[in-house]
């Protein structure tokens, strides 16, 4: 039997000696320093066996990497390559089995060592792999090492699982949760962290998309907390991944969850076995203990959020389109479903025009190339559902107005609240720096200067935050008072005008529809060319509507008869530009939902053979001229509000050919002569004159409208107004008073 020295030959000494150093985890590298040092001391063992110090190569890049074959070990691969090229004569290791914890790597190394006549040495001895007994001994050691690794891991995993079943296995908590002295999780007592986490869930409830929450935080320069590996809390600018991790973490719902992932092994293109973790669905989670502590949201809300996030995926596992609100023109994107197969319908936009269609996604979900169930034109569907929504929301317009104001105020309050939290923390740090500076002896200038610099930096941070809060407060509109809110409830909100306003974008409309409807099922009756829509409202109510679909060759852009009649009236006295402005002011839109322009008005006139307005060439007498409200106000030297009041009172005559069209006002000679800068003697304001005579103001206006009483516009500035002659008023009022008194007798 050969001894250790007999196995080492001259052919081995002529090659290099390799020392392979490895620890399984980073924690072992950090805490088990003695074990690492023992492996480095193998260098002296190699020198004692006859190798020169320069011929000893150390492979230590695999510190912190497991030898179980589930991770890539670059130094182990380099070691096998060096052995295969014949430059390594012996491999030193603290324990031969530490070279590999799996038989695949272990036996591959032994095979290469056997072919290249490379020895393996540890504290138990030196092994010549080319000899059967040594090969058998090392093979048994490798098998026992792999079994030991498996048994240890199994016991640890089972122990963790048993502890997790009771909810006692402590895991690193996310930011916003802490352990109490009894080891139970609870919401953190730090208000700054708590407000930031609450804001994320609040904005997701409002906006329904993780990306929209991320954009909200980013646009307002807000920060969110994260917990590092060492347990400390850091604040950083928001990123999409951090926001999604907060929304998907069940710990925020007060639940204890274990086993959300399972280990799995894969083989890459190079044939290397890699260990990864596969995410499981919520139904497959191994341990779920609900309501273990009070969370930021309830478990039901967490489940609802996960379903909402799943729907936001562009194409889900069933091949259906997402429901996330995007910038497209289609208002029913994510809501409309096929009435035949029930799948969510996708939107197909036309490249060259502004039209779009809703297409069933069945073809994308099947492998046999089955045709889609149906394809429906989008604009008629959108108009019908929007009209149903506006009709249903009409009684709730007042509540919507007040709620909209409250949402705007809350958005700004959330932004300033986080700044206030940061300011409070900065003031604490400044006070702490001052206390440290204050207790230093004045003679110790080196320490005093350092603490003074830190104190000034803290004070500067406080000043910056105060300026930022003041800047944001100055930019936000003042909140509505209780009196203004009561007035708003009285006046209400015209939701139709808001819906059709140019400032209301499609994203806002989609958000409103998704709040109101759970889904919209569409089924086309091809014989009658009617689309049957089933509107499923939030809460379970269902309403049925029918939408007439245009036949092949039928023009889809059909205007209402009322709109054509109004355009025909306005065309008698208005240009195309004026008509377009009047139609847009009243909220009218084309069948495609577009605002009117000069070109679109001209197209309507040509289609319905409406002649264009030609202004008269020759001017007429002044008393026959027609003025707009602005022109009449300028002519008489009053404001437009006064002109409208006089039209209502009948002092001057005016008319409109259609709603929101320019006024046609005539100013006869007697109206012009009634304008005076100086109030003549004996002429009084209408209200004062009526009071002197003992009649009502409305009765005086009635006599003015009948032409029984003359009136003038006199005075300057705020004292300017209508005046009547008191003597003339008495003459007109005297018969009336006598008749009323006689009637009483």
Overview of the structural elements:
47% of the residues lie in helices and 15% in strands. The chain has 745 residues and is of the alpha+beta class. It has a five-stranded mixed β-sheet, with helices on both faces. Helix 9 packs antiparallel against helix 15 and helix 15 runs antiparallel to helix 16. It is elongated and about 145 Å long. The protein starts with a helix and ends with a helix.
Brief account:
By secondary structure, the chain is of the alpha+beta class.
Q: Which characteristics define this entry?
A:
single chain; 745 residues; alpha+beta; 5-stranded mixed β-sheet
Mean pLDDT: 77
Instruction: Tell me what portion of residues adopts beta-strand conformation.
Output: 15-25%
The first-to-last residue Cα distance is 152 Å
Radius of gyration: 43 Å
Would you count the extended β strands for me? 26
Residue ranges: pLDDT <50 for 5 or more in a row? 619-623
Strand order of the biggest β-sheet: 2-1-3-4-5
Tally of individual helices: 28
Shape: elongated
Helical coverage, percent range: 40-55%
Instruction: Say what oligomer this is.
Output: single chain
Structural class: alpha+beta
């Amino acid at each position: 039997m050969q001894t250790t020295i007999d196995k080492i030959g001259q052919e081995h000494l002529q090659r290099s000696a390799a020392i392979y150093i490895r620890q399984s985890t980073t924690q072992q590298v950090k805490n088990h320093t003695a074990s690492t040092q023992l492996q480095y001391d193998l260098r002296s063992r190699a020198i004692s066996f006859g190798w020169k110090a320069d011929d000893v190569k150390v492979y230590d890049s695999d510190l912190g990497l497991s030898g179980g074959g589930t991770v890539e070990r670059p130094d182990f691969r380099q070691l096998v390559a060096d052995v295969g090229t014949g430059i390594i004569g012996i491999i030193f290791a603290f324990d031969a089995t530490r070279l590999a914890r799996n038989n695949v790597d272990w036996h591959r190394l032994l095979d290469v060592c056997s072919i290249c006549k490379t020895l393996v040495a540890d504290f138990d001895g030196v092994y010549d792999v080319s000899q059967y007994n040594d090969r058998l001994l090392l093979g048994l050691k490798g098998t026992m090492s792999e079994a030991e690794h498996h048994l240890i891991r199994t016991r640890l995993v089972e122990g963790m699982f048993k502890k997790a079943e009771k909810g006692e296995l402590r895991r690193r908590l996310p930011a916003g949760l802490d352990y109490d002295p009894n080891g139970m999780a609870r919401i953190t007592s730090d208000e700054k962290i708590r407000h930031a986490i609450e804001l994320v869930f609040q904005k997701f409830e409002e906006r329904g998309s993780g990306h929209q929450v991320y954009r909200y935080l980013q646009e307002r320069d807000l920060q969110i907390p994260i917990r590092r590996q060492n347990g400390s809390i850091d604040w950083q600018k928001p990123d999409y991944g951090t926001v999604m991790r907060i929304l998907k973490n069940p710990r925020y719902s007060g639940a204890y969850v274990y086993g959300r992932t399972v280990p799995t092994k894969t083989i890459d293109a190079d044939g290397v076995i890699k260990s990864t973790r596969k995410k499981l669905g919520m139904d497959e989670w191994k341990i779920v203990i609900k309501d273990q502590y009070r969370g930021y949201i309830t478990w039901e809300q967490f489940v609802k959020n996960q379903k909402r996030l799943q729907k936001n995926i562009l194409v889900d596992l069933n091949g259906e389109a997402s429901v996330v609100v995007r910038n497209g023109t289609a208002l029913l994107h994510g809501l409309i479903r096929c009435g035949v197969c029930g799948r969510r319908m996708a939107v197909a936009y036309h490249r060259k025009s502004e039209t779009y269609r809703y297409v069933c996604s069945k073809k994308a979900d099947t492998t046999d190339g089955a045709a889609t169930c149906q394809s429906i034109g989008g604009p008629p569907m959108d108009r019908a559902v929007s009209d149903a929504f506006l009709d249903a929301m009409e009684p709730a317009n007042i509540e919507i107005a007040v709620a909209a104001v409250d949402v705007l105020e809350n958005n700004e309050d959330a932004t300033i609240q986080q700044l206030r939290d940061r300011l409070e923390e900065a003031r604490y740090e400044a006070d702490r720096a001052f206390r440290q500076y204050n207790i230093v002896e004045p003679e110790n200038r080196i320490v005093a200067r350092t603490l003074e610099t830190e104190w000034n930096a803290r004070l500067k941070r406080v000043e910056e935050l105060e300026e930022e809060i003041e800047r944001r407060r100055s930019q936000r509109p003042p909140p509505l008072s209780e009196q203004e809110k009561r007035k708003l409830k009285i006046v209400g909100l015209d939701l139709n005008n808001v819906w059709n306003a140019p400032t209301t974008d499609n994203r806002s409309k989609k958000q409103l529809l998704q709040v109101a409807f759970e889904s919209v099922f569409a089924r086309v009756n091809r014989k009658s060319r009617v689309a049957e829509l089933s509107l499923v409202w939030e809460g379970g109510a269902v309403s049925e509507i029918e939408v007439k679909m245009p036949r092949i060759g039928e023009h889809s852009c059909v205007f209402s008869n009322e709109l054509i009649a109004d355009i025909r009236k306005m065309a008698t006295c208005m240009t195309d530009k004026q008509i377009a402005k009047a139609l847009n002011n009243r909220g009218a839109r084309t069948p495609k939902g577009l605002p009117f322009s000069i070109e679109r008005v001209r197209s309507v006139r040509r289609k319905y053979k409406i002649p264009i307005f030609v202004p008269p060439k020759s001017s007429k007498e002044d008393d026959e001229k027609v003025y707009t409200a602005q022109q009449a106000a300028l002519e008489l030297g009053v404001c437009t509000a006064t002109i409208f009041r006089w039209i209502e009172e009948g002092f001057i005559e005016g008319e409109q050919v259609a709603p929101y069209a320019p006024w046609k006002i005539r100013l006869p000679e007697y109206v012009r002569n009634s304008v005076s800068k100086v109030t003549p003697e004996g002429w009084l304001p209408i209200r004062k004159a009526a009071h002197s005579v003992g009649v009502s103001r409305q009765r005086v206006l009635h006599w003015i409208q009948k032409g029984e009483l003359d009136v003038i516009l006199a005075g300057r500035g705020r004292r300017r107004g209508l005046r009547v002659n008191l003597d003339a008023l008495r003459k007109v009022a005297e018969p009336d008073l006598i008749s009323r008194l006689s009637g009483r007798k």
